[in-house]
Design goal:
Number of domains: 3
Distance between the termini: 66 Å
Strand order of the largest sheet: 1-2-5-10-7-8
Largest sheet: 6 strands, antiparallel
Radius of gyration: 21 Å
Structural class: alpha+beta
CATH class of the largest domain: Mainly Beta
Strand content: 25-35%
Number of strands: 12
Shape: globular
Order of helices and strands: EEEEEEEEEEEHEHHHHHHHHH
């Protein structure tokens, strides 16, 4: 008997739970997106039914075979080995078998999440259910690997802005969305940019989503990301992260707050994760910033 599972828009049964889960983001956490990074060390099988969209990467030993068998009439089984990209559209149902060790990362989008990001009814998106060699979708691999590191570091949590931004980028890189026509570089107007600055400043200590930022600018999420980068030179997530670090630096240099308080007021979950971000953005730790103040 299999073990039932549900991960976002995907439901089914697995022959046994994964031997290891490196990171997981539950669907209830952020606006209809779920993520899992897991591994099996022995052969097994699963069934799955997709209600929205599923995008993933599969990494097996050279001799490990992965076999997909859809339930649609006339659909032939697919067999893959090594590094594989997988895209499953709404309504896909089938089962999977593997004969050895493998690791996989999947992000699942609810129908509402896809429609919010694309401003298109899911029924109007001709999403193919397909698999191919991962070398054809390396951008997806890098995006999911980065999200996996985040999920592992955060212990099941994720910044809403990061998850939404990665989700949108995965949709584009996976081929789930039709290629956008060539267009002039998008930018925000001065009024839109000012609204975003004010919003980030007002919400710097609390989670902020891509949808909220796009709404403040009066744009769709997809266009907003392009326009934001055209105006600020960085992604919305990178901008918010830098603003949080700047506020934390300012608070630490006053010498009147603890590192934990500076982290909380700057929107970081705790001082440890603030320190990790500090080193990525500034090249030094918060304690080094404090020593600079006292020098």
């Amino acid at each position: 008997m299999g073990v039932p599972f549900a991960n976002g828009c995907v439901q089914g049964e697995v022959s046994a739970p994964p031997d290891r889960v490196f990171g997981r983001i539950e669907a209830s956490g952020v606006e209809g997106l779920a993520f899992i990074d897991y591994a099996y060390g022995a052969p097994g099988h699963s069934t799955h039914s997709v209600g929205g969209l599923l995008v993933g990467t599969w990494h097996g030993e050279p001799w490990t075979r992965l076999t997909f068998a859809g339930e649609a009439e006339g659909e032939a089984p697919e067999e893959w080995s090594g590094e594989t990209f997988v895209l499953r559209g709404p309504g896909y149902a089938g089962h999977t078998r593997w004969n050895g060790r493998y690791r996989a990362r999947y992000i699942a989008f609810s129908p509402g999440a896809v429609e919010r990001m694309t401003e298109t009814p899911l029924a109007d998106l001709p999403v193919p259910s397909t698999a191919c060699d991962l070398t054809e979708r390396m951008t997806v691999f890098h995006l999911l690997a980065a999200l996996g590191r985040q999920a592992e570091e955060e212990g099941g949590g994720a910044d809403p802005l990061l998850l939404n931004s990665v989700g949108l980028a995965v949709l584009r890189a996976s081929g789930a969305l039709p290629a956008a026509p060539a267009r002039r570089s998008a930018t925000l107007t001065r009024r839109q940019a000012a609204r975003i600055r004010d919003l980030v400043a007002a919400r710097i200590g609390t989670p902020l989503t891509l949808g909220e930022m796009a709404e403040a600018a009066g744009l769709s999420e997809g266009y907003f990301v392009r326009a934001f980068k055209g105006s600020f030179g960085v992604t919305p997530y990178q901008y918010v992260l830098r603003e949080r670090v700047a506020l934390a630096q300012s608070l630490i240099r006053t010498g009147t707050v603890s590192l934990s308080e500076a982290a909380a007021r700057s929107g970081f979950p705790d001082a440890r994760r603030m320190g990790r971000t500090f080193r990525k953005v500034t090249g030094r730790s918060p304690t080094a910033t404090a020593r600079l103040r006292s020098a």
